[in-house]
Each structure stands twice: as structure tokens, then as C-alpha cells.
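#lab-general

N.A. 3:47 PM
ok so I finally got the sequence cleaned up, no stray characters, all 488 residues accounted for. can someone with queue access submit it? mine expired

B.Y. 3:52 PM
send it over

N.A. 3:53 PM
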Amino acid sequence: MDATEVESQEPSRPENVLEPRKPRLNKYALACALLASTTSILLGYDIGVMSGAVIFIRENLKIKSTQVEILVGILNVCSLIGSLASGKTSDYLGRRYTIVLAAATFLIGALLMGLAPSFPFLMAGRIIAGIGVGYSLMIAPVYTAEVSPAMTRGLLTSLPEVFIVFGILLGYIINYALSGLPQHINWRLMLGIAAIPSLVIGGGVMAMPESPRWLVMKGRLDEAKSVLIKVSDSAEEAEFRLVEIKKAASFGSGHGDSSTTRWHGQGVWKELLLRPSPAVRRMLIAAIGINFFMQASGNDAVIYYCPEVFRAAGIHSKKLLFGVNVIMGFAKTFFVLVSALYLDRFGRRPLLLLGSSGMAVSLVVLGLGSKFLEHSNSKPVWAIVICIVAVCGFVSFFSIGLGPITWVYSSEIFPLRLRAQGSGLAISVNRLVSGVLSMTFLSFAEKITFGGVFFVLAGIMVVGTVFFYVFMPETKGKTLEEIEALFE
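B.Y. 4:20 PM
back already:
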């Protein structure tokens, strides 16, 4: 079938239905996106709180640097198991129950970590929590993208990153607040408190509707239409979106309802990896690429080990170290909110290119500042301040570009049939790279110094910026069903 035949079969877009002069934010869609995105707070809290808790764990359990790296990185490595499994699970159980499963898994992990009497128990808790994190990282943006109207999808699908950043800030504040408690108690409380949001999320998600696109795939058209009416600005828009989704799900093209109700995600891996069409191959390259560079930038590792970096720079007070973390957390929170609010106005590409180039510059400045401090006996205050500003600049540019846009892009570019498992595959790459960097960051720093590591990361971000410019088309304002044409 050629392009003209495809175009002739597409439903005409109703005037002022999907392209209003000024996009309106649907309150029901916003509520659904907020509830789904709260699962992301679990990863953010772990990243933030672990950066401080690991200092006390190291002293209390008398573990070595290598064990610290394994302890920190194992959550990210194991989260790739959850990411890979989440696609098939969400195609089978539905998006909503997969979110509940993510929260329940993390709850068990958090309780194990908080009650851990020894290092092996702590590791077991990290492994289980990591699987829950993997589930949540895939399912939150996919669910949100499938519920969101096209004109506000950038804002709503970037909410998982907003909650990750909020979780990081919350972790920093808890670190600061509990750092004065006895050493054998404070880190257990820091890690165990994560069980509370898990319980709230698990209960709150049950009030959400199921994804209308998943309902269509199951042949439950009346339920899908009911949800679409709530998340659309008019009945005409809901009807238009339903027609597009039905077409994407192969309705009306010789496939009956029974074929979709029996579909549980089978055959997707073959379509993604063994015999992908040129368009699917480009989608996979774009999704895996942005997830790779998100973590190859070193963002997670820098946040996890920020106290170690500044301790090497000459800051030795634990309160002061955690205070710097709180400042960094507020910077991240502010800029991720700015990016989320303007993502649908400026588009994905401009903010992504601005963020990645800004990260490269910040890493160069941080590398120069670290190198100067490494060769200075006096550790001048101005050099430490430059390093603090550079770290804040690095995390701020990350929050403008790669932070929110990775989740948005990964969840919106795949066609409906491939979306859950394609996103899961891309995010598993994200988790693998994050785990590898987190588990080797200190070892590399010991060999080539922190300054050397920052220069390497700066080079990676230069390559990343070129990749984004070449391989990432703009998706602003397109429906999920229209985006596929961008990759043809």
C-alpha cells in the first residue's frame, strides 16, 4: 500500500478539535498523569537518600569502596529486569495493574532495606527495590502518553521526571534531617521511609482508569470511549481519537475483535529486533540512543557520589555536604518544572539540544575546577564554589533536556502494538548504563581522578548532542498515531 492510499484512508481531523489555538490542559488527564507519575518518586527518593545514607552505611557496616559501588549500582542493574518484564506484563495485565505491581515490589524492597541487620540483607532489599523501580520507570510515561491529548502530552509525560526530581530533593532533605541520629539508626530510617509512598501509590492508582489504548487492544471499545471522553476536550475529539486508535490497533482492516482480545504482547520482540521495518528500526535507534546518553552523561552517578566528590574537593562536614545536596536538589526541581511547562511550546528538539550542550560545558568547568583542587593544598573557597556552581549547572541542564524528554520520547514514538515492550527495551538500556556507571564511578575516579572522569563525561555529551541533532525528529503536537509517519 503506497503513501497516497494510506492518506486517503485516514480520518479527517476535525477543525479546532486537536489543533486549538491555545492548548487547554484537561484536568482529568492531568489527574491521571499525576497519579501514574507518583511511582517515579520511588527512584528519585532512592537516588537522593542513598547519596547520604551510603556514608553512614560505609562507617556502620565497615564495608569497602567496591562494596559501596555494588550496593549503589545494584538497584539500577536489577531495575533493567523490571524494565524488560514490564512491557509484556503491561500488555497482559494492563497499564494500571502494572503500576500497582511496581509499587508493591518497591514496598517489599524498602522494608528489607530499612530492617536490614547486615550487608547481605541490605543487598537483597536493593535487588527487589530495583525490580520495582524498573517497572515504574517504563509504565508511568507509557500510561501517561496513552491518556494525554496530543497538544499537552509533553507536559504530562514529563511529569515522571518531575517526580523523580522531587523524590531526589525529598531524599536530600531526609538525609539532612536524620544525619544527627545514631549511626546504626539513621541510614535504616532513611531507606525504610520509602515504604510510605509505596503504600500511598498502590492505593491511589486504583482510582485511575485503564489506558484507553490498551482497552482498544483488548476490544473493550465502550470502556475506551468512556475514558477518551473524560480526557478529551469534546465528544468530537474523543471520537476522532478513538477512530485513530482503532486503526492503529488493526481494527477495520480484516482483524476482528477476537484477534485483539487474545493478544497479550506476543510477537513484538520479533517485530522489534529480528524483522523490524525501516521506520521501527529508526524508532528503536532513537529510543535506545536517548536512553543511553541520558545515563552515559553520568547524571545518576554524579548525584549518588556528589558528597564523595565534594569531600575530595575539601568539604568534610557531613551537614555541609548534605546542605550542598539540598541546594542541588532545589536547582534540579526548578528547572525540570520550567522544562515541563514549556515542552509543548518550544518542542522536544530545542530543549534537548540546549540541555545536552549545557551539560557538556558544565562538565568541562567541573573537570577544570576538580583538577585545580586536586593539585592545590590550600583548597581555596572560590574553586570549591565554582565546582558547586558547575554541578548545579550540570543537573539543571539535565533537568531542562535529557531528564524529562527521555521519558516523553521513549513513550510516544513507538506504534501502539510495540509501545510497551519497545519502551521497556529502551529503558532497560537506560538502567544497564546507569548501573554500570554507578558501580564503576569511584573506581575510575581513583585511577584517573574525578576531574578526569568529568572530562570523559563531557566528551560523551558532545557526541550525544550530535546524535540528538541527527536522529531525533520533532514530535510536538502530533498524536501518537501520527508520530509513526515521522520515522517513515
